Amino acid sequence: MDEKKTVILYTDGACSGNPGLGGYGGILIYKDVEREFSGAEVETTNNRMEVLAVIEGLKRLKYPCKVEIYSDSAYTVNAFTEGWIYGWKKKNWKKADGKPVQNVDLWEELYSLTQKHEVVFHKVAGHADDARNNRCDELARGAIVELRKTLPVDFDETSEAVQDSENE
Question: What pLDDT digit, counting tens, does each position of 72-106 carry?
Fold first, then answer.
């Protein structure tokens, strides 16, 4: 039996307003080859973009792999390292307090993808000295900029957070 290939996946999500325009970015690394990807959505949240970044990275793998996932999202990483996702699934996507898990559509898809691969999640510090995490942030923010260019001139985006995030 062939041994699974080991792939490294860096991801990040961003949001201009929360909710608002959102983007995700990622880098897939196999041996010395790196492939970047990104995308954006109009009405979303930062947490959705963080989870979607991992989903989009895993969906790009053609075969079952060993995947080392690096993210600055405690929301995403802790769901696996702390075992939250397994409890949510067991309780039919409900939290310990009985309330529905937010973003269940994404969690179900991510859970399914992690069953196809051997994944290990690693938490990295956001906006720090990790060059690949910083690049993923650039990709996510760039995807928001590109999405904004496609929207009608009168698109209503009045959140103060929009102005704040663009001036960082």
Answer: 999 999 999 999 999 999 999 999 899 999 999 99
**Is 127 labeled as catalytic in the residue annotation?**
yes
- Cα three-residue angle 125-129-133, rounded to 5 degrees: 60
Indicate the pairing of strand 20-30 with strand 33-44: antiparallel
| Angstrom distance (rounded) from CA 168 to CA 165 | 5
CA distance 136 to 123: 14
The pLDDT tens digits for 106-131 are 999 999 999 999 999 999 987 778 89
Question: Is 32 among the residues known to form the active site?
Answer: no
Which residue's structure tokens are 């009405």?
43
CB 52 within 8 A of CB 24: yes
Q: Of the residues 43, 127, 164, 166, which is catalytic? A: 127
Length of the chain counted residue by residue: 168
Q: Structure pTM? A: 0.89
Catalytic residue among 22, 26, 39, 72: 72
Active site residue 137: yes
